User: Fold these one by one.
Assistant:
Number 1:
Amino acid sequence: MSRAKPVLAALGDSAITVTLAESPSREATAYARRFASRVRQAGISHLEEVLPAYTAVTIFYDALHLPFDDLCSRLQTLLGEEDSPSADANTPCCHRIRVVYDGPDLADVAAATGLTTDEVVQLHSSRIYDVDLLGFVPGFAYLSEIDARLELPRRAQPRQRVPAGSVAIASRLTGIYPFETPGGWHILGRTVAVMFDPRRAEPSLFHPGDTVKFERAQ
Amino acid sequence: MSITITRAPSYLTIQDFGRTQFREVGVPRCGAMDRAALGTANAVLGNEADAAGLEWALGGGTLRFDHPCVFAVGGASVDVALNSRPVDVALKSTPVDVALRSTPVDVVLKSTPVDVALKSTPVDVAINATPVEPFTTMHAKAGDVLKISGFTSGRFLYIAFGGGLDTEELLGSRSTYRPAHFGGIEGRMIRTGESVRVSAHNRGRAGFSAPDDLRPDYSRRSIRVVPGPQWSFFTAEDRALFFGQSYTVSRASDRMGYRLEGKPLSASLGLLPSEGVCEGAIQVPPDGLPIVLMADSPTVGGYPKIGVVASTDLPVLAQLSPGECFQFEECSVQDAQRRARRAAGSLHTIRSLASR
């Protein structure tokens, strides 16, 4: 990973973006996650949330009590300290998700990729995916990285309604729609797993750093 | 304690100051589009600024107080009236009957608009309606009807209640979040006929008004922006154009984001690796027309962010209707934070005056 000099930049008056790498890589994502853990553990008061992504970490804070300049100098100190490989405090989970592969786009994906539907299912369900980050809607995890043979751009015409539990692919990513929302990914199948429930102790099934394996339900 | 929506507008939800701990699993801040208005309406009631209230937009309507209640409104400029005698009650009451029979009609017509009420029976037509002033506490009796009509400027009106609304709290907030169908009432808009619980701690005095100099100022048409993380990636021409031109709020503007119309920036940056975004962030997609992210925007995004609207100015932008024009003005992060502290101080002052 090209670990360029980290850049701190204000994201408005209540957040800071710390850019740690110039281009995304598994290593960069892991480093961002470790740095996020170190920020959380540093005992800085008035932090709201620390959000790691591919190449950057965004830190939300209460600017009424913690001025930008003070937070910057705390972060600079942390950046100067040695990175500890064990800093990621979250224990990652390995999820097994049963999927009924009967999605409305399965045949089209097979046709577009020159594979049979069985081969599409086989390729999609044989890999172990990383939860890179969540977004779009609560509980929607961007999972990487699908087999290059399945790589397709998003659908030209996004659907107005994608049912909750739809398992879909786009570019080199796969994901599960937690709610009925609009969506432009190719739907391969469905799962009954509840991806997000705001009343559950752990609302989101997936967290950054987890791994996911899809299994074909018979 | 409750209120009942007797005629819902096209948009009505429950909002507070939102969720701030679950961005990592994709939950946006949510919350009031204009936190200054909700916060001030709460402060005059002596509530915490972030108590839950109603966010009302897209048309008029009515609500009924099922119990005696202290409340305050504020935000968009709207005609709000509280009647102490709804029309259907007035029609049944004997004094009006007697007056109609025993006195010449023209005298009655001059003294009360009874003829209008008789012809147009809808329940929300009020006699003896009291205008409801913004950011001023008022007392409603059980059965009173609050009528909202005629938005003259602004998009969102807030109705706050002493003690706040007492609906289910999810992920640290009562805010309605429609894209994921949770918060408020089943994560959706409130419909005609539905009741909303008000805190049992609804108390407070009527007639307290926020001092003028401490209220939100919606007259600004210059919105302060702190340059964003990708500011330096934009060309000098783009940066000059961004602050030099007048932007118009597009019709494509909602709780997720406000699209802006104007001369497009060259914006040749394309898509960057997704990273955390926030409310007020100004993304520039490849078409060069900025999108200001609002309360319900997704938590991560890959478009370059030229800047972020200062938190004190976001409510002013949120209240601009499609077609309204404004300019962006550069502001340092330190200056934006000073202003945010001053605004918080104003709310604190209003609340202490109200609680005296």
Note: The radius of gyration of chain A is 19 Å.
Number 2:
Amino acid sequence: MENNKIKELERKAKIIREGILDCIGIDKKGHLGGSMSSADLVTALYFYKMRINPENPDDPERDRFILSKGHSVLAQYAALSELGYFSKSELKRTKEFGSFLQGHPEVRTPGIEANTGSLGQGLSIGVGMALAAKLDSKNYRVYVILGDGELCEGQIWEAITCASFYNLDNLVAIVDYNQMQASGPIKERYNTGDIKAKFEAFGWKAWEIDGHNMTDIIVALDKTEQVKNFPSAIIAYTIKGKGVSFAENNYSFHNNSLTQEQYEQACKDIASI
Amino acid sequence: MKIENLREAYGKELLAVAREDSRVVALDADLCGSTMTIFMEKEMPERFFEMGIAEQNMVSVAAGLSLSGKIPFVNSFSVFAAGQPYNQIRQGVALPNLNVRIIGSSCGLSDAGDGATHQSVEDIAIMRAIPNMAVIVPVDAEETRKVVRASLQHQGPIYIRITRSLLPALTNRHTEFKIGKMLCLAEGLDITVFATGIMVFKALQAREILSKKGISVRVINVSTIKPLNIEEIFKYTKGVKGIVTAEEHSIIGGLGSAVVEALCDMKIPIKIVGIQDQFGQSAGTHEELLEYYGLTAQSIIEKVEALL
């Protein structure tokens, strides 16, 4: 990967983080922490890996992306508006009455592939899409971002078992491993342990990467395409609130509002990346 | 009167429509021999997905298949199909209004031997309360086939409740069927009985006995409990002295509740035959349980007589 391509993706990630701040605004509650931790992963998928066409959002050959940790949707809205699925001016209306940018992903929003946000369901939906691709002999791939807190949901492990049973090598799960839940660090709240080992034990290929290192991310995404007969998992070590100084590793910004002062500081922090 | 197997009718019709429409796929949670998706598995194994005993995953996988253009039929016993994956149905299927068909097999008390854990008394209430969800209870094997076929044209999710017990044929291939349309099986002037599923035949039996006493009862088969056809409810209510509803389901949230909701502004007495907010239990036969819980022609007769 050429250096300038990496630089371009990092520049996109910065735009995504700015978009997240547009969505959150001032005195409006929003899931800042998880959106910021997912931002680089979302950027790499939308601007590097996935074959998508905003002009034809229903293209049957398109790759699919499901944000199973639906609360981080602000990062996805920012990416979709940057790609032209809808106007950037909509971001400021996120979560407002009458806006099609709901608090959690819904298919009525252009570019959103599934309704998620009730945690634990997105990987199964991805399994369904991957099965459909196999059935229809289509080459599209399905990418699902999971939260680490979400891994407590039993359904995730049903889906992991199912994907492995059906040899879904067109399915990639990416864990946004920010190690922080709504109520605190996973080590203090509810630790799901060695995630990579667990995926492997369930028959997946798995890698651990730095989820904020663009080179790491795209190398891992490329590797998943070489795997045959097994689904792939990328455990991406991230920082909750990444990029916003006062919110990094601070679970109180899981879903919180920003004061005028905090908002300005956040904008400054992102601008200086 | 011909007695038929509704599950078998379902399984065979599912295969028949799957032959004609490549969008149709089936998912089952280790009960294909009972839900009768086995016919489809045998002939087209690539379009049958064994999901293991994991109903939550099964429903969300169906959502993914539907979002990819398929029409998935999700199968289990009604108590597991409507109960275990309630939130998956609500969030992933009903909210985006997907064309997923959830088949609640061995419904009501019809899995008599297995007891309360395997008997659904509240599945209609649960499914009916979810926006966008249609709820259909076929009355016989013929109507089961028609429901399967008609479901392919319906936009949005459907919960279809199918009994394990053999039931008499009350309709034939010429009987008109439309989702959302009721069927008047017998005319009458004094009382209208709105019945669903296994209770429709019991209502017809009650009508026979009452007619000998000079009481004239109209029997309506309500197979589509949601969306409930309000116009037909009004039409069949007009001119009668009272209404009786009958269902093999809790009196809370089922057909009776739906009819009462529809008629709440009308000055007409209504009586509900159903399970009195109780769980089921094991028994040697389905009939024994129907008797115990008062799901009988006699119960309908008593309600009708109380209204006159």
Note: Residues 3-271 of chain A form a domain with the Rossmann fold fold (CATH 3.40.50.970).
Number 3:
Amino acid sequence: MDVMPKWAEVVLVPLISLLLASILSAIVILAIGENPWDALMLMIDGALGSTYGWGYTLYYATNFIFTGLAVAIAFHARMFNIGGEGQAMLGGLGVALVCLYIPWPHWSLALLGASVSAAIFGAAWATIPAFLQAKRGSHIVITTIMFNFIAAALLNFLLIGALKPTGSMEPATGKFPETTHLPSFQDMFSTADNVMFRGAPANISFFVAVAACFALWFLIWRTRLGYEIRAFGHSESAAKYAGISPTKIIMIAMMISGALAGMMAINNVMGEAERLVLNAVEGAGFIGIAVALMGRSHPFGVFLAALLFGFLYQGGAELALWTSIPRELIVVIQALVILFTGALDNMVRMPLERIFLAFRKPAKGA
Amino acid sequence: MDLLTILQILDSSVRLAVPLLLACLAGLYSERAGIFDIGLEGKMLAAAFMAAAIAYTSGSAWVGLLAGIGASLVLSAVHGVASITFRGNQLISGVAINFLAAGLTVVIAQSWFAQGGRTPTLQGDARFEPITLPFAESLQSVPVIGPIYYELISGHSVLVYIAFLLVPLTWWVLYRTRFGLRLRAVGENPASVDTAGISVVQLRYIAVIICGVLCGLAGAYLSTALQAGFTKDMSAGRGFIALAALIFAKWRPWHALYATLLFGFLQALALRPDLLENTLGFKVNGQLLDALPYILTVVILAGFVGKAIPPRAGGEPYVKER
């Protein structure tokens, strides 16, 4: 039964959740002796007040679009992929191998090759938990958590071993060759006398991320596979009855999810660092959970939520720079968003539904 | 390898196994009652911080312990409200709790102590000191038994002994008391418990509270006994290893002890790569040792070594009438 109109479901519930999260965050800021309003203004100024700030905001947002879409597609098949972090790490490995060992003539080809490689590596890392879920009934949440840790150990192993250039002490690969350098926003939008996005890491992969949003929207709502994924997510037994193979859907949905998480690496590894370092993902895989919940698993919602979190990330960095508020405040906000939009969804929804019901009754009687 | 080295390794295995054991038992109560809890990590971390902070300000490790349990209980309450009262997604709630703890501990630590997200080093009574058991020193000269008693069994903090006593206690509660029967039933088939006139909600809340207390013990042990103070992210994935141990143990108390001792042993070995190399004659990769608990869990989950079947109603909110 639809108690609430669709706009309330899509807009009102996430907004109220966000409002609750902001109020609690403001209380935290007050409690540590800072002014929440000043903090917000500082964040807005730092993240959106200059093209430099935007360059960072959009860079972070690109990461979060990929990982958010990854969690979202898994949600559509009613699976919870906590393994975005590990899949993104493996995607980084895929990008690094392709960039280091294949002599690319031009960055556009390198981007294509790196995207494919990142997607394959990420998908491969998601395939094993997916297979275990589909065939052996092992809970996907637990296996993907375990695979995050295994991925971290694997990367650690490779970066202090095989992939480290000789003579280097740092656990990182060597720098990628110049031909794999992706055009940054500075390269793309600056004119000779007006430098925009100076030194900011946002790069062309932002547009790849936006394209991925459209592609995923098309996949979910305009193709047979998307229909099957959604049908499976709504009711496994009904999907089975309709001849949809659960094994196939679990495997494919998780592979798409892993591929998207892996593709984050074209932004942070290829676009920004231009080499693979330890902990390159920096928790973006987990932020994908908050982004997907906030965006209601819709690609457009994910895009908006990713922008919001990009803003929070860059704003949070500015806060840490200019005030005594540590960067971890962003982790708190992220946790509150996950809590209210995900776990306490009913707490927000139930009173709203009651309000809408109360308004609807007189209309029916008239 | 001589006896003393072996004893040292085993001794540090015990020390490292204790937080895993406490968290694992915490998860056991919760999951046996049908509430999945991937927020063990966060509760441990919050407890570790609060225990260290209050132990430092009050100068008493016991007051710190209570504060740690309190912090863990607050997060437990959030989990309970989200997953029992509002029938939310227990996994998402757990994820949120982990992040909440990871963020808040550093923010508050920075605000209180301004030492880059850590507490000052604890000294004296603010820490749980090792206890020397009776006769440990006089028996030390007795061959074999003496050193085992002195090195391995004696000389731990009181929390270690509490943790080990909790294993038989948990077994007894779970399998020999009415409460235990109801707890297990509510995790398998809540409707039947409800039909018998027992409150599902109340039972599950009790389980979540016990889970909070045990996570509090685990966290306090980390910061006030194993180490002397709180550092950022000091739980370092132990909550997840405990979760792995719980699956490894197939949700049974004695097996939880064996699993956590095994994982503690692996952690102790990873700290002494030189020893392993000398004994085996070849270099064992440290990252492999780190990853081994997770790999073992995946293998167990895959059902290659016996099948791990979680409590049937685990993860599902209970709705009275459908």
Note: The domain at 61-311 of chain A is CATH 1.10.3470 (ABC transporter involved in vitamin B12 uptake, BtuC).
